[in-house]
Specification:
Blueprint lengths: L10 E3 L2 E3 L15 E2 L9 E6 L8 E3 L2 E8 L2 E8 L5 E8 L17 E3 L2 E5 L4 E6 L5 E6 H4 L14 E3 L2 E4 L9 E5 L5 E5 L10 E5 L2 E7 L3 E5 L6 E6 L14 E3 L2 E6 L4 E6 L6 E6 L11 E3 L2 E6 L7 E6 L5 E5 L5 E6 L2 E6 L4 E5 L10 E2 L11 E3 L2 E5 L3 E5 L1
Parallel strand pairs: 3-29
Antiparallel strand pairs: 1-2, 4-35, 5-6, 6-7, 7-8, 9-10, 10-11, 11-12, 13-14, 14-15, 15-16, 17-18, 18-19, 19-20, 21-22, 22-23, 23-24, 25-26, 26-27, 27-28, 29-30, 30-31, 31-32, 33-34, 34-35
């Protein structure tokens, strides 16, 4: 995975010292919802702008903020200055995606910034590479057409994984094209692997037992591949017993362990890689069942949302090695959680924004930011002392 951690000089923000870092992809620099070396400011609004449809989270690099959304019949990638919201460039293409359930019809996948390019994956499976400096199209692939992908419940939603000059995607194509690798410079397919259908989870690159792997949580379950060749190293079925279900949370790699979680009576599982011989440490549907929001890890504990989003969720802390529930807060509702230098930043689906210490002893809400009206399902971006959140109506920059 291409990493974009860039250490800046200390800055003074409302009396709080912080070191800035980019947020170039889904769930941040290491795809685990965690950013270090920064403290959250008072969470006051710096600027706000209208936005189009979609659940794609914002990303940041080199002081530029990117948002992937749908405006009328176009999926649009907008680049603005992070500090001011001033427009830099915009790229768009036609999209006629229709949601079968009447939900949002914008893109679901956060862009990825890597090596001077931005990679987007639209709701209809259009994969684009765009020049980061100018917003000009470099290449495009219609993955649904090229790999005969069947339309899922909610369109394409997994964010692209860029690693070693390759763009990896769980496209869910036919004829062994479940996961496809593309040349990052040209868009040429390099290899196909697996028969697994696509999920709404994003893959991660990880080092397990000293070896580099691409780890996916597909519609069927865990899939571990060799990123250079697509060779299947390990797979395990881990999904609900009924078809009307989804896998959406991103796998968490913690040391040499893999944590997976899903809802629909599936629950969570912790797997030790164990020298290439994976072993289940524990599994439970009572500990942590992430519907769509990925949990975060700190010092041997996981913090995340448990239960079905539409049926009411609890926000809780569990012990990583045992699954023991340390505390559970029932009044938060659904949302997402980001770990910012040891502090939990919680963005409620109802638009409420607050922080809490990442402590297994108790849940204690602290500072609150301004609410963002509407339904918030996109993960935030935390970069250069700023927090950016969005829904289908507005994007909001806080500091």
């Amino acid at each position: 995975m291409v990493r974009y951690m860039q250490i800046f000089k200390l800055a003074l923000l409302c009396g709080v010292s912080l070191v800035a870092a980019d947020w170039p992809q889904h769930l941040g620099p290491d795809r685990n919802g965690t950013v270090k070396g920064a403290e959250l400011g008072p969470l006051a609004t710096v600027w706000s702008k209208p936005t189009g449809a979609g659940f794609a989270g914002p990303v940041v690099a080199e002081g530029k903020l990117l948002l992937f959304h749908r405006i009328k019949n176009s999926e649009t990638l907008d680049c603005v200055e992070l500090k001011t919201g001033k427009a830099v460039w915009s790229f768009s293409y036609e999209s006629l995606y229709k949601d079968d359930f009447g939900f949002d019809e914008g893109p679901r996948s956060a862009p990825v910034i890597a090596n001077g390019k931005v990679y987007t994956f639209g709701a209809e499976g259009m994969l684009h590479a765009v020049d980061f400096a100018t917003g000009k199209k470099v290449w495009a692939v219609d993955t649904f057409r090229q790999f005969q992908v069947k339309k899922g419940y909610f369109g394409a939603a997994g964010s692209a994984l860029v690693d070693g000059g390759r763009v990896l995607l769980n496209v869910g194509g036919a004829n062994g094209a479940g996961v496809v690798a593309f040349d990052a410079q040209t868009g040429k397919p390099l290899w196909t692997s697996s028969t697994d259908e696509a999920s709404y989870s994003s893959g991660v690159a990880a080092t397990l037992g000293g070896q580099r792997y691409a780890v996916f949580f597909t519609r069927n379950g865990l899939l571990v591949l060799e990123p250079a060749t697509g060779r299947k190293v390990y797979s395990m079925r881990w999904r609900a017993r009924f078809a009307a279900s989804v896998n959406a949370a991103t796998p968490l790699i913690i040391g040499d362990s893999i944590f997976l979680s899903a809802s629909y009576e599936t629950g969570a599982i912790l797997i030790d890689w164990n020298g290439g011989q994976p072993k289940t440490v524990w599994s439970s549907d009572e500990a942590m069942s992430n519907h769509y929001a990925t949990a975060v890890h700190k010092d041997g504990y996981l913090y995340g949302f448990h239960g079905r989003q539409e049926m009411g969720q609890s926000f809780r802390c569990i012990e990583l090695r045992t699954g023991k529930v340390m505390w559970s807060e029932e009044k938060v509702g659904a949302g997402s959680v980001t770990l910012v230098n040891g502090t939990l930043l919680v963005i409620g689906e109802n638009g409420q924004i607050f922080t809490a210490p990442a402590s297994p002893k108790e849940f204690k809400s602290q500072k609150r930011g301004p609410a963002i009206p509407g339904v918030v399902r996109a993960f935030p971006a935390v970069a250069d002392g700023m927090v950016v959140v969005r829904n289908q109506l507005r994007w909001l920059a806080l500091k």
